[in-house]
Amino acid sequence: MSAVAGHMGPINACAFSPDGRRVVSASDDQTLRLWDAETRRCEATLEGHNDRVTGCAFAPDGETIVSAGEDGALKLWDVDSRACRVTLEGFIGRLSACAFAPDGEMIISGGFDQTLRLWDARSGSQLATLEGHTGRVTACAFSPDGRRLVSASDDHTIKLWDAETARCEATLEGHAGPVTACAFSPDGRRIVSASRDETVKLWGAETGACEATFEGHDGPVGACAFSPDGVTIVSAGTDSTVKLWDARIGVCRATLIGHAGAVHACAFSPDGETIVSGGEDGTLKFWDAHAGAEGATAEGHTDEVDFGAFAPDSDPIVSKSRGNLGGVSGLYDPTREPWDADPYPRRKTNSFDDVDRIRLWESLHHRRDALEELGRWVFTGDSAPEGETTARAGTGDTLGLRAVHSGAGRGAPEGHTGDVTACAFSPDGRRIVSGSLDGTLKLWDAQTGRCLATLEERGGGVLACAFSPDGQRFVSAGADHTLKIRDSGTGRCKAVLEGHGGPVRACAYSPDGRPIVSGSDDMSLKFWDPLLGTELGPRSGPSVLDRDWFVQPPPTPPPGHADRVTACAFSPDGRRLVSGSADTTLKLWDARTRTCEAVLEGHTGEVTACAYAPDGRTIVSAGRDKTLKIWDALTCTERAALEGHTGEVTACAFSPDGEMIVSASCDQTLKLWDAHSGAELLSFPVAAGLLACAFSPLGDRVCCGGAGGSVHILELTGDLAAARAAARP
Hints:
Elements: E1 2-5, E2 11-16, E3 22-27, E4 31-36, E5 42-47, E6 53-58, E7 64-69, E8 74-78, E9 84-88, E10 95-100, E11 106-111, E12 115-120, E13 126-131, E14 137-142, E15 148-153, E16 157-162, E17 168-173, E18 179-184, E19 190-195, E20 199-204, E21 210-215, E22 221-226, E23 232-237, E24 241-246, E25 252-257, E26 263-268, E27 274-279, E28 283-288, E29 298-301, E30 305-310, E31 317-322, E32 325-329, E33 346-348, E34 356-363, E35 388-392, E36 398-408, E37 420-425, E38 431-436, E39 440-445, E40 451-456, E41 462-467, E42 473-478, E43 482-487, E44 493-498, E45 504-509, E46 516-520, E47 525-529, E48 534-536, E49 565-570, E50 576-581, E51 585-590, E52 596-601, E53 607-612, E54 618-623, E55 627-632, E56 637-643, E57 649-654, E58 660-665, E59 669-674, E60 680-685, E61 690-695, E62 701-706, E63 711-718, H1 720-727
Antiparallel strand pairs: 1-28, 2-3, 3-4, 4-5, 6-7, 7-8, 8-9, 10-11, 11-12, 12-13, 14-15, 15-16, 16-17, 18-19, 19-20, 20-21, 22-23, 23-24, 24-25, 26-27, 27-28, 29-32, 30-31, 31-34, 33-34, 35-36, 36-63, 37-38, 38-39, 39-40, 41-42, 42-43, 43-44, 45-46, 46-47, 47-48, 49-50, 50-51, 51-52, 53-54, ...
């Protein structure tokens, strides 16, 4: 990330030119500024508005800029001469938004008078007034084909309009607060919206149905946009963050931290490589869309930095400060003189709250991916050996995770080219299977990290995978609504299981290998015979569930999930099944009769993962509410909530002995927890947000994967028994 200052007030809007070479920004200081997107230099200041400038956009040919202001003026600017060509009048009151049509022939604007107006971009004449909103119009945009318009309003709604007839086609309702932003996807099939209700929502442009709700911001969301390929959504919030979301599976891939106040604007460059954002701090920040890289000055401490040290290979760097977090720390290439004016750029990670504030930094010239939070752990000694991160607990007991294999991701010959959504060890621990949104499955040697095979899935991204208990086969679940069973030796597809009406997000083998269970966006769980490749119905006869497993059986079996099923797992004896859902609940099912026996409520966001302990008496679940929860499987009550992640928790698993829990998160950390006390044992930083994790059968290794396509194989080191004992009360 690099930051540029120039405006004397908050930035309300920003946009790239069609060729990506320039950026325009609009500010409370009543000006627009034109920036060179490569050098970050301000080329011109456009003055003419008499109040806050609230919107700006480039024409498709890049030669004209339109701006909207609270002075009630809509202005057209010549990019070459920097002169205002014309001021369009006709509004009653202040303006809040503006946009060009894809062919550059029309302009749409919205204002405080609750209307939208269509203008002829050449003559400046008003073509139509669109009425229907009952609150201020906050945002507006054309569809990619120019035939439709979308608008957002303080009245909590989004409206779709016919651009030719100016007729309202649909009103999209679902936000619980004023809607602040809206945009069409590049293919015109979906709409994204942001709201002061702290959510981002994805809508079907044809159906008007809400397809997904993204939760993660800790305050109102003020802006949102699609990436040029439609795969990623960027959002900006008053919580000072910019977030990247995977539009296909609805998970937060990265949180970009750097602004000193609310972020009001964000946009992708035309090539999708860069994100620009602007906010209350009056700065524009440029981010690497893949890594969220920060620029030359590492800012983070708010008190004097009294210690800094390089690792033996000069990367990463650790710095220590007393007092509150924030401040400025300049970090330099160790081969240069201390006062060299041109240090290599650095970037920071999160830090932890203790008396001594410790931060890890990494030089951009060495690696593009940032390190992340170390929780309450610090390097043992002056630095960590190459390839190993070692953590020290407060008791003096040392734990560690050593990277056996890491970094085969986007751009690597063997790595995935899309986010890794799933990974699993084979029962003998010798192999790992990983699945990715790039539409491939990969088999890896768990000891060396070597890629053994790449299996192409023709139907779309892989969302889940699991080995059979005997290790002879594995099943994968996909965005194409199917499951596929493959021979783990040859990779040959043995069966395709069809029947779901939406993407399949979860799958698991029963302990005896029959049946397979799967969960889908169609809100259903399905059971399959893996040998016949057919769907199984519920069995008749009494349930095999022991009646004393519940303190009190539920009076009436509850219905199925009310939203997509995101996770499922069998109990070790195969008698029960647990499922997790976007409806924030877990459900316990009789695996034989397929009847729901209990509902576990406690998460405040989508449940992303769940797993049984090896003894079957405990369940762990992970959620978008940034927590893990431990449940008593016998009484169906919550035993503990594990808090420590700063982002959505996307995956979790028990160790084979049931003593530990591993969790993965979008906050770019892998954490180990004591399964009995719930105490955090270790936090391991990785280079990107994580979506999957698994323990090896012996419990000595962990694999994980996530954004960017990397698969990491990590080996546990140190005295784990002592650390677990020390963590317990």
